[in-house]
Amino acid sequence: MALYLISDLHLASDRAALCEAFSLFCRRLDGQDCLYILGDLFDYFIGFDEQDAAHLQVKAALSEAAARGARAFFIHGNRDFLLQEEDARTLGLTLLSDTITLPTDSGRALLLHGDQLCRQELPLKLLRALGRSRTARALFAALPAHWRHAVARFVRGKSQQLQPKRSALPHKYGLQKEQTAALMQSLHCNVLIHGHFHLKEQGNDEFFPGSVRLALGCWGENYSYIRAESMPQDTSTAPEETVWHNFSLVELPLTTLTSS
Fold this sequence. Notes:
Layout: E1 2-6, H1 16-26, E2 34-37, H2 53-67, E3 71-74, H3 85-91, E4 94-95, E5 99-104, E6 107-112, H4 122-131, H5 134-141, H6 145-168, H7 170-173, H8 177-186, E7 189-194, E8 201-204, E9 212-215, E10 222-230, E11 244-253, H9 254-258
Parallel strand pairs: 1-2, 2-3, 3-4, 6-7, 7-9
Antiparallel strand pairs: 1-10, 5-6, 8-9, 10-11
């Protein structure tokens, strides 16, 4: 049984090549394989739309993978935090909480999108908090479509504005190490797996001795993923109970996927 983790695909109906790449990537899922999407699957999301080509392609790809026995899980990102349980079921995803942990042979791993690990502007913090409220999400879903699109475009715009700041001023807008270390230790984790920063990175001992960080890159010219395997002696089929090992962090040109 294999575990795959991806993040920051930013799929949209006008990004046909990326949508096709996701479909091709899902074809490698087989048997009891598990796919964890750590947020920002879509460029923005205001509800499942039968007329949206990206939504339909994701649904089809995950349906085909599920028919082979694979399972797909989703953690909210800062672009698609309004995706609700009903949307997830329609797409073929199991919606998880914003932070989850999995057992590995190196200790427990903390999985999350990553926006929680850096300083955010107040409007984005408020919207993210509202996204965690079932009542607020229901009220948002009741708004006219053009209002919902306007809010989603605002969130996308703010996120895009912050991206260069994270590179230019990492001490202010990048990953906050003390905050991250405190979160990891509170959850008894020494492995951190995240996306959000759009950079494939791997680090050791960044937060405390023995800590490991695996950061997923975004999808665009390249695509990024993490693959791990279940321990040979592990007979559990529940991913949250399976002990994972042999983690590999991969980034390749998107053309190698679409031409394979």
